[in-house]
Amino acid sequence: MDVIYFDNNATTKVADEVAEAMQPFFCGLYGNPSSMHTFGGQVGHDIKKAREQVANLLSCDPSEIIFTSCGTESDNTAIRSALAACPDRRKIVTSRVEHPAVLTTCRELEIHGYNIVEIPVDGTGRLEMDQFEDALDDDTAVVTIMYANNETGTVFPIEKIAQMVSDKGIIFHTDAVQVIGKIPLDLSKIPIDMLSISGHKLHAPKGVGVLYVRKGTRLLPFMQGGHQESGRRAGTENVPGIVGLGKACELAGQNIEEENNQVKQLRDKLENAILKTCPECIVNGDIENRLPNTSNISFKYIEGEAILLMLDKFGICASSGSACTSGSLEPSHVLRAMGVPFTAAHGSIRFSLSRYNIEKEVDITIEKLPEIVNRLRELSPFVKK
Ligand code: PLP
Nearest to residue 175, comparing CAs of 124, 104, 242? Predict the structure, then answer.
């Protein structure tokens, strides 16, 4: 059975061109870039090229790119480094809908005496900007607000947010893990101090990420060790991963608008057909400010997991907005923060597309889904019969 993969916000297929670019660095060019010999040293040129490829996509200087192991490491490094750089300040401003890489880090820091302010969102997932503005003060060491939400695709007004934070002289970090390759980004025009990227969300492999650190922003390394990445990130470089991420950034930059328009058309076709054929469905998120690939839909009165299992029988991969905690299904913190009603939050499904999806896959899903939803509603104790 062919897989129909609509779970690209979880992870993506490695692009063929990326896999090909990585191949020489496993068994042939396996030298350590820090070695004195030519064999190892030549690999350093490939890392340099990858750094330039990433910097080109972001419109920044290659020296501002630090390779890490993943988005989570980049987020942790940014937040902890900002706190270390401002030891007199004790406050972190973030949002209630961040990925756990940020939210759990902040909540752990709270145990160590930091004051964490989690800005709420409205029913469509938009950040409450008045509360955000009020939260910025002289005690704020760092603001960490995601660029776009991984569950709903809602895009925050990061240019405005970055400017507000910069005007107050506070360090600004954004988790842009879901944005890279989906929305063009020009860091020469937005006062972002630090930004996180994860390779496996943009058709590079798992195990490689980037932390962008604007020139002049103090960075205190998260880990102690060797002098790699100009002393900013210790540990022998993941050369194949770095080369792959460089290539993925090059590919992402080539046709970003055209490709994402196509993805958006498919996403809209899927979403509109579902809303038409399945009664009692709602789209979660800010429809006007959304990633082009993401659709988060609540199917009222049924459980998302049940839908996923039935879709899986047809090889269709998506994900749900609930997580199994202590044996019971808990709606996601994002949907809870948005105030999505219980009966809808439990039945939420996220479809996240990529440039590799084709129309036929959307058509198959549109054909199968109404049967699945009808069948589950027949069994649901919440539906009046
Ligand atoms: N931030 C966001 C918004 C994400 O969606 C993810 C992964 O789902 C991460 C951070 C973590 O990235 P990684 O899996 O590379 O650690």
Answer: 104
